[in-house]
Amino acid sequence: MRFNTKVIRAGNNPDPTSGAISVPIYQTSTYVLEEIGKLKGYDYSRSGTPTSRALEENLAALEGGKGCVTFASGLAATDALFHTLSSGDHVLACDDLYGGTRRLANNLWKNTGLEFDFIDMTDPQRIAEGIKPNTKLVFVETPSNPLLKVIDIKAACDIAHGKGIKVIVDNTFQTPCFQKPLELGADAALHSLTKSLSGHHDVIGGAVVTSDDELLEQLQFNLLSVGAPLAPMEAFLTLRGIKTLAVRMERAAENSIKIAGWLEKNEKVTRVIYPGLEGHPGYAIHKKQSTSPGAMLCFELDGGFDESVKCMNRVKIWQLAESLGGCDSLITHPASMTHVSVPPEVRAELGITDSLVRLSTGIEDADDLIEDLDQAVSE
Ligand code: PLP
Questions:
Q1: Under CATH, domain 245-378 is a member of which superfamily?
Q2: How far apart are CA 243 and CA 5, in angstroms?
Q3: Which of 45, 139, 177, 186 is deepest in the core (most CB within 10 A)?
Q4: How far is it, in rounded angstroms, from Cα 379 to Cα 374?
Q5: pLDDT at 181
């Protein structure tokens, strides 16, 4: 099956009891045994439901992995990955990544003895230099959030695997529609299902896809033992959202390409960050490992912070909100919203300025989105 067929058919089998074409929402906490020791495949919904199982099958097929475990949120999935480590282990992570991942690492996992370093991975040589004798995981987000830095996944995997270290790629921004980390050598692809996969701003969820049997088993054990499963309704909505993943992603990327071109020409805009622009430092690598520049972009305005705030407060079609990847276009101020938990001095060092505006392009008419930005940046 090709990708556009897999989004519809992988895991989406007619319900065995009724033939329902949509995988039902199995709203149940427990399952009746046929007799002692004889289950019909499920015992208690903390470790999965037929709805979440169907979604896991679908996601594994889309990413080209052997298996998948879903969780209550993207951060719960990240947390489950960190749980596979032991006190004293070191995680080498990219420096520009979702603020909540950094908060989880610095404010919770560091207290239990895990070590973290956050480094610029755009030059793979820095990954080689950052690896320590106790490094167990290389954590990559590409393009990164919010600065859209591009990391060479294959190069990162070659370096890490040479030392027996696993590589996790947060593939939330691109989704398997545009980028397949496992094919590039990654040990696991991590997702916030909250974003493009569910695609309608109505779900919180997370997932990890892997072909590593040991990791899969550890994640399943985590789900059972920690207990942050994806609820059946969320699994259903994500399965439904994925059916239109390719058409949504392609349309959103098409809109983003037009918007990036318009921003580049606007005299009030001082900086545009989009991996589809030839001037982006990661343009060539991104083109090599991803089939589209994607639907996320950032810009800064001439008047700095005040002008950016004015623009974000003036938009009418773009909506001022956290999150990304839905049908509705969102405009975000990373410094005060998604990355507020990153200390100001770290934000400054990374280049997440107070005037940086992040766009998650949806599937509305590109001309309406451009006109709205135009009126918002005009005097
Ligand atoms: N990874 C990325 C790239 C994100 O943008 C986010 C959330 O914004 C997460 C992970 C965390 O996902 P969730 O909000 O579903 O916990």
A1: Aspartate Aminotransferase, domain 1 (3.90.1150.10)
A2: 9
A3: 186
A4: 10
A5: 98
pLDDT reported for residue 324 = 97
Tell the residue number behind the tokens 């439904």, with chain if given.
Answer: 240
| CA 266 to centroid of chain Cα atoms | 30
Which SS3 state, helix, strand or coil, does residue 146 take? Answer: coil
The reply to whether 9 belongs to the active site is no
Please tell me the distance from the alpha carbon of residue 55 to that of residue 12, in angstroms, as a whole number.
8
Cα of 338 from ligand 1 centre, angstroms: 9
Does the CB atom of residue 325 touch ligand 1 within 6 A?
no
- pLDDT given for residue 379 in this prediction: 73
What distance in angstroms lies between residue 179's CA and the mean position of ligand 1's atoms? 17
Any catalytic annotation for residue 98?
yes
Cα separation, 227 vs 158, in Å, equals 34
Q: Do domains 3-242 and 245-378 have the same CATH topology?
A: no
Atom number in ligand 1 closest to CA 322: 8
What pLDDT is recorded for position 341? 86
Q: Is 192 touching ligand 1 by the criterion CB < 6 Å? A: yes
164: Cβ contacts below 8 Å, ≥ 6 apart: none
Domain definitions of the chain by residue range: 3-242, 245-378
DSSP secondary structure letter of residue 68: E
Taking residue 370's Cβ as centre, other Cβ atoms within 10 Å add up to: 18
Burial of 310 (0-12, 13-18, 19+ CB in 10 A): middle
Q: Is the pTM of this model over 0.70?
A: yes
User: Amino acid letter at 118?
Assistant: F
Cβ of 73 less than 6 Å from ligand 1: yes
In angstroms, the CA 361 to CA 51 distance is 29
Euclidean distance between CA atoms 379 and 375, whole angstroms? 8
Residue 152: C-alpha distances to residues 63, 122, 185, 229, 290 (Å): 18, 7, 11, 32, 10
Evaluate: CB of 74 within 6 angstroms of ligand 1.
yes
Q: Which CATH architecture has domain 3-242?
A: 3-Layer(aba) Sandwich (3.40)
> Which ranges of the chain have pLDDT less than 50?
none
